[in-house]
Design goal:
The protein is built from 13 helices and 26 strands. With 460 residues, the chain is α/β, with parallel strands linked by helices. The protein has three domains: 221 residues, FAD/NAD(P)-binding domain, CATH 3.50.50; 102 residues, 3-Layer(bba) Sandwich (FAD/NAD(P)-binding domain); 104 residues, Glutaredoxin (3-Layer(aba) Sandwich). The strands form seven sheets. Strands 6-3-2-10-21 form a five-stranded parallel beta sheet, covered by helices on one side. The structure holds NADPH dihydro-nicotinamide-adenine-dinucleotide phosphate. The site of NADPH dihydro-nicotinamide-adenine-dinucleotide phosphate (NDP) has 20 residues, from helix 6.
């Protein structure tokens, strides 16, 4: 088994020209919003062990949304709560979410090189290599930058008519912008609000959808104000009461929607991927970008829909495409990466006095060669006596630290070791000497307790 995995690992490294210290991660997700979170869930469930770099603003745009009422299956939920559920689900199924932000990528050759820095310690930088990548970095909405805008954000100022429009039934709202979003949102709000005023700073609509522009002009409760700029948002304790228009003064309103475009968070990918003139990532096939094995989802590619559910759908599509595209390489990649992680964990565990969980045969063989006498607990999660004896093993591991190393082997996941050592009952504890030979084999709580007592007495 060990030889086989190392052969795969070596083959993989040589095909990617990497050294053994640089594990190739099967899949990396950049961005921890709803699109990235969904990709992570799908990839983790397929055993791709994705690493997610969630960046400085975890949760993305969804975490900033007040009430979400269009997520299928949930009548109403706070955006931050929904995002936390997606994040927890990703972790529960095996995604490795890291509080790191990506500072550079190199997609010019595979494996892709990704450099990050810790969010809470920017001086700590790390380099990763990935066989595939999902970009889910989202976008930043554009702001007017006028007085009152920030103060009344969420209190009458919004940039999502589809999300917040229903709060303005039979009320009077304004929209700023002259693009397709502004036209779309004005039409949408005109079915909900009593009156919709559209403020366009130029003397024409930039929107390109002629049918919608015609519908806009024909809608009796929509009024378009060309050459009109909003200079200030005004309000009281209850929220927005109006706007100040340049040269025109106060204009009363119950709410103001911004439809002045957004800026995708794609600066990192300039020169690496094809971007459109506004900076959105151009897709070639499905969610795949101009670089094979690099996928992009959510608001970084989508200026149009910008919905949590569409980002989630795209995240799932990207993950499925990766599984299909990597299918031939996936078993070797996954096995090699798991092996590398087990080694790293073993090295980390070596420094502590706790009982070390064995997660690969190679890790176990390394422990055999470590020169320490070993106390190896073969256990099962469903075994009551195993649970009862576990605290005694943990405390003995601390007490006998430096003299014996304590390992535990889950017989359900490490069947090869169970067979090698002919384990027939749980719990069984083996005492293995420095040369790797079994000196004692104890079965059941009573025998194991006695062994632990002898070891402690002998070590005094
Ligand atoms: P756009 O960038 O196309 O339009 C932004 C609008 O906001 C412009 O009219 C712009 O004015 C105005 N604006 C920008 N900043 C300010 C400011 N500070 N004060 C006042 N006005 C401002 O963004 P959209 O979100 O509308 O569209 C993004 C992309 O998505 C476009 O390609 C669009 O075609 C597409 N889209 C397509 C839809 C469809 O159904 N086909 C629906 C929605 C979007 P100015 O013109 O003066 O620069």
């Amino acid at each position: 088994m060990r030889c086989k995995i190392f052969t795969l690992f070596a083959l993989l490294l040589s095909s990617f020209s990497l050294s053994a210290e640089e594990a190739v991660i099967p899949s990396v997700v950049i961005g921890g919003g709803v699109g990235g979170g969904t990709s992570a869930i799908y990839l983790a469930r397929a055993h791709f062990q994705p690493i997610v770099f969630e960046g400085a603003k975890p949760g993305g745009a969804l975490a900033q949304s007040e009430d979400v009422e269009n997520w299928p299956g949930i009548l109403k939920i706070r955006g931050a709560e929904l995002m936390e559920q997606i994040r927890s689900q990703a972790i529960a199924v095996g995604a490795d979410i890291r509080e790191e932000e990506v500072v550079s990528v190199d997609f010019s050759q595979r494996p892709f090189k990704i450099v990050t820095r810790k969010v809470d310690n920017p001086a700590e930088m790390k380099t990763y290599y990935a066989a595939s990548c999902v970009i889910a970095t989202g976008s930043k909405p554009n702001y007017l930058g006028v007085k009152g805008e920030e103060k009344y954000w969420g209190e009458g100022v919004s940039n999502c008519a589809i999300c917040d429009g229903s709060l303005y039934r039979n009320k009077h709202v304004g929209i700023v912008g002259g693009g397709d979003s502004a036209v779309l949102e004005a039409l949408y709000l005109s079915n909900i609000a009593k009156k919709v005023d559209l403020f366009v700073r130029k003397d024409f609509l930039r929107a390109t959808d002629e049918a919608r522009k015609k519908a806009l002009l024909e809608q009796p409760n929509i009024e378009i104000h060309f050459n009109t700029e909003v200079e200030e948002v005004v309000g009281n304790d209850e929220g927005v009461t109006g706007v100040v228009l340049k040269d025109l003064g106060v204009f009363p309103l119950d709410g103001l929607f911004l439809a002045i475009g957004s800026t995708p968070n794609t600066v990192l990918f300039q020169g690496q991927l094809d971007l459109d003139p506004s900076g959105y990532i151009v897709l070639k096939e499905g969610q795949e970008t101009s670089v094979p094995f690099v996928y992009a989802v959510g608001d970084a590619v989508d200026a149009l829909d910008r919905q949590a559910v569409t980002a989630a759908g795209a995240g799932a599509r990207a993950a499925l495409a990766i599984q299909s595209k990597l299918s031939a390489q996936a078993p070797a990649l996954i096995a090699a990466y798991r092996e590398q992680k087990a080694m790293e964990k073993a090295i980390a565990d070596n420094g502590s006095a706790a009982v070390i969980e064995i997660s690969s045969v190679a890790q176990f063989e390394n422990e055999l060669k470590s020169g320490s006498p070993l106390v190896v607990d073969f256990y099962a999660t469903w075994c009551g006596p195993c649970k009862r004896i576990a605290p005694a093993l943990e405390s003995s591991a601390k007490e006998l630290s430096g003299k014996y190393k304590f390992l535990k082997v889950n017989v359900d996941t490490m069947q090869e070791l169970m067979k090698n050592y002919r384990i027939r009952a749980m719990p069984t504890v083996l005492l293995i000497n420095e040369q790797g030979g079994v000196e004692e084999k104890k079965v059941g709580e009573q025998e194991i307790s006695e062994l632990l007592s002898h070891l402690k007495a002998d070590s005094k």
